[in-house]
Amino acid sequence: MPPEPRTAPPSRPSRPSRPSLTERRKAETQLEIARTAAALFAERGAAVTADEIARASGVALRTFYRYFRTKEDAVAPLLAVGVRQWIDDLAAPPAGPGAPPVREVLERAARRALTPADEPAAEALRRTRGLLRVMPGDPALRAVWHRVHHDSEEALTPVLARLTGAGSLEVRLAAAAANTAMRVAVEEWAAGDEPAEGPQGPAELVARGMRALTAGLPELDGANGPNGRREEAR
C-alpha cells in the first residue's frame, strides 16, 4: 500500500517583524517633533514656521526637513497615534467559539483608542483638540488631518475584510462608516470644553456615532470565526 499522504500542519499567521532600533528612534523623534509642532500651532496658528518648530524641538532645520516635507506634516505622527492603536487592536481580536460580533469588537476598539489610558495619552488628546481648533483657519493643516483619516480608512479595509469575510462593497462601506465615526467624534469633542472622559468625551461620542453609521451593515453582526471568516449568529 502506498504511504498515506501527510497532512501539513496548520500554518501560523506570521508576526510582523519588530522595527529596528534605528526605526524606533526615528519614530520617537518624529513624535516628539509632532508634539512640539502641535503645541506651537495651537498657540500661534499658521504663523508658526518650520524653523521655529525645529528649534523648539532641539533639531536642526535640515533634520526637520529630512523627516517632514512641510511644517504642517509635522503634526501627522501625533494625529496618527490613536488611529494606529485602534487598527492594531482590531487586527488581533478574540476569535473562535464565543467570540463577540464584529460590530462589538469594532466599538470596543474605538472606545479604547479614545479613552486616555495614561497622562501621555490624555496630553495627546488635548494637543489634538488644540490643533482642531486652529484648523478652520489653516487649510494645509486641515488637509493633514483628512489625509491621516484617509490612510486610516485604507488600513482598516483589509482588517475588516478578514474579520467579516464580506464583499468589497460592504467592507469599504464599513471601513468608511467606522472611520467617519472616529473622526467626527474627535472633532465634536474638540469643539467643546468637555473632559476627555465622561458622557460627552470622545469615547462615548464614537460609540454613539459608530452605532448610527453602521446600523445598516448586517455584515458586522457576525462573530469572527477561527479562520478569519464571519460566522453568522444562529
From TrEMBL:
The DNA-binding region ranges are 49-68
Report keywords, A-Z. Answer: DNA-binding, Transcription, Transcription regulation
Name one molecular function that GO assigns to this entry. DNA-binding transcription factor activity
Record's keyword annotation contains NADP:
no
- Known Pfam families for this protein? TetR_C_14, TetR_N
Which superkingdom is the protein from?
A: Bacteria
* Composition skew (Pro residues), residue ranges: 1-13
Q: Where is the HTH tetR-type domain?
A: 27-86
User: Which residue ranges does the record annotate as region Disordered?
Assistant: 1-27
Instruction: Kindly provide the name given to this protein in its UniProt entry.
Output: TetR family transcriptional regulator
Species name: Streptomyces inhibens
